[in-house]
Amino acid sequence: MLKQRIVGAPALRKEGQAKVRGTARYIDDISFPDMIFGATVRSRIPRGHILKIEFGDGIPWNEFVVVSARDIPGDNVIALINKDWPCLVDEQVNHPEEPILLLAHPDRHLLPKAVAAVQIEYEALPSIHSIEESERGDVIVWGEDNVFKKFLIEKGDVDTAWDQADFIVEGEYATGAQEHLYIENNGVIAAYTPGDGLTLWGSMQCPFYVHKSLVGLTGLPEDKVRIIQVETGGAFGGKEDYPSMIGAHAALLAMKSGHPVKIMYDRLEDMVATTKRHPSRTRIRTAVTKEGKLLAADINFALDGGAYSTLSSTVLSRGTIHACGPYYWPNIRVRSKAFATNCPPHGAFRGFGAPQSLFAIERHMDCVAHAIGLAPEELRRRNFLRPGLTTATGQEIREAIDLEHLLSRALTLSDYHAKRERFDRENAYTKKKKGIGIAAFFHGSGFTGSGERNLSSVAAMDATADGRLRVLVSSTEFGQGTNTILCQIAAEALGIDYEAVEIAQPDTSVVPNTGPTVASRTTMIVGKLVHSAALGLKQTLQASGSLHESWTTEEFCAAAKMHVGRYGKLYSSSRYEPPPNVYWDDATYRGEAYPAFAWAVYVAEVTVDMITYGVTVDDFVAVQEVGHVLNPVLATGQIEGGVAQGIGYALYENVQWERGRMTNGQMTNYIIPTSQDIPPIRVFFEEIPFAYGAYGAKGIGELPMDGPAPAIVNAVSHATGEDFKAIPLLPEAICSRLGLRHSVPAEAIAI
């Protein structure tokens, strides 16, 4: 057997060569005989009744396939959590860009003209476009009160804590929407025959989510609906929910036309029609002693969910639990609501609610420190969660986490104290003011609460007739390293070369339901299942006498081939079982919210140009504890990518809305950071192996999205002396706050 470890080594990406050589086939590289192309006719108003639809002149409509809500054979709904999201509008529009009709034609270039020729007459209804409008309830657009979901967390006695406080600090914080902007737009191909049923190929994260939706929509038996994930060019959560919608549209067109149908969004349609990160508003009131001990917090956390509930309840859930930050609160109350508006539905995005609430609490901690005259890092140090203490949900910290050590290491690596002192001294004499800020945070690995128990995920391994070993999971690769990590885990467990293990293409007719590729769960949860399945495979070979006490890779593969030839198959599966002492009460919203947390302290150094009011991030230190690091190159890449995305969230990415419609749906005016805007990102890991994760791993993918925004805005506030509480923090906001909206400095004129 191998003596070196595969886990912990920088194994090459399984799909890397195909991507580098250009042989990887994405959805728009795939074609089928007699394939036609689909397009969507969308609403142009935020809310109203459809009165009349007319098909304009100049289009050969007899050549088109047209699908409306009346053509749906099953339920007109995209099945996620609640069944309120229609596949196609029947009578009432509830947001701009809502799908109304589907068109298909052999000439994809004729489709835009046909879409433009469809004229729809509406009776407009009142609409709402913000949390505040929805909260007031003057117009009800969903249910009885515009509230999709609400949660309450209570610990201790918040109401009596105020009298004990030396200081009471209040603040309101806001975050905007964020576009996923994955490299590859949404796209699918659907094919249908009465005998074979429906097959859908697509760029997606969660094949079994799409399968569930299409079974209900088409009315077909489960075994007549097959979903296949093809090479996927980025997702960030944006391909968790929306592939069910575009997949449903292609399926309906394929079933009606009898042809394979491809739908491929262009960038504009993808940006204006699909889900975004939820905008948020957080109000925090805290009681604190003059020594800096946190006594109590009363937190109100609100999300704009858009027109339909989609995944808002689960995003709200994670945001609610993370709203308290990595601190010990003897008394805390968190009330949260997800509100309906007439914007396109907001959905999953890397971090899943935690970036919104953690931005608020980490900005607020700096405000509290300033109010009581304590250094920001010292306030945090005095209130960190430690082993034996409990979170807001009553979860005892059992990991040997040392947040004080993480903080000290981050401060040392960034030269925080010396720089802060120097910046304070020099900023009075320069038009380019420098600041340095910190953020401490955590992120729960896996589904919240009872989610993993309910999923009951299964992973498997098998051997082919020629002795190749395969990992069988529905977990998908979209650039983050799923294929590589899971093959590393399998190879390590089997004691064979990494190159001898392959992973099956996610195909619902071939692989078991391993759950969605979300929630920082793939390595920790699915990886552990793969490890168990691999051990089962090895034990089967040993029990049959095909494998001896030690073996080479060649001997193992030969034993697998012999076993398949003799018995017909070699297969092993493993079903999820929760770690011991992990209990969650959905009714009281208390207990162990996550099997484990990842922890981090980030430090951002910035320059604020007092002439242009632009912010440059000059240096970034990211220190995190994520369990055992299974592939250091992939892990570092996850942190670097998350920090870069967090910089965009903090400073650049501003979704502009007009009556519920995104008006800057192009990459020319939706600004993301370029390589020139990204500083050196210095990544450091602490490793405390988690006993119930694969080889000690915990989640990593979402963690780096949580910390950059508050660290950066804390640094900007340090540089300017102004207390900024909303992102994205654009130059216009800095200029306005500094009272210089209408003036131009003399230096600028001279330049």
Descriptors:
single chain, 30% helix, 21 helices, 751 residues, six-stranded mixed beta sheet
User: How much is the radius of gyration in Å?
Assistant: 27 Å
The order of strands across the largest sheet is: 3-5-1-12-9-10-11
N-to-C terminal Cα separation, in Å? Answer: 69 Å
The count of DSSP E runs of length 2 or more, i.e. the number of strands, is 28
Q: Give the CA-based shape.
A: globular
Number of helices: 21
Q: Describe the biggest sheet?
A: 7 strands, mixed
> Strand percentage, roughly?
15-25%
Helix content: 25-40%
Uncertain runs: 741-751
Mean pLDDT: 96
- What structural class do helix, strand and pairing data support? alpha+beta
Task: Summarize this entry quickly.
The protein is of the alpha+beta class and 751 residues long. Helices cover 30% and strands 24% of the residues.
Helices and strands in order, then pairings?
Elements: H1 16-21, E1 36-42, E2 48-55, E3 65-67, E4 92-93, E5 99-105, H2 111-117, E6 118-124, H3 131-136, E7 147-155, H4 158-161, E8 167-175, E9 187-193, E10 197-202, H5 207-218, E11 225-229, H6 238-257, E12 261-264, H7 267-273, E13 280-288, E14 294-304, H8 312-322, E15 331-339, H9 354-372, H10 376-381, H11 403-413, H12 416-426, E16 432-445, H13 451-455, E17 458-463, E18 469-472, H14 482-494, E19 501-503, H15 522-543, H16 553-567, E20 570-575, E21 584-585, E22 590-591, E23 596-609, E24 615-625, H17 632-651, E25 657-658, E26 661-662, E27 681-686, H18 703-706, H19 708-720, E28 726-727, H20 731-737, H21 746-750
Parallel strand pairs: 1-12, 8-28, 10-11, 14-15, 18-19, 24-27
Antiparallel strand pairs: 1-5, 2-4, 2-6, 3-5, 7-15, 8-13, 9-10, 9-12, 13-14, 16-23, 17-18, 17-20, 21-22, 23-24, 25-26
Helix pairs in contact: 5-6, 8-9, 9-19, 14-15, 17-19
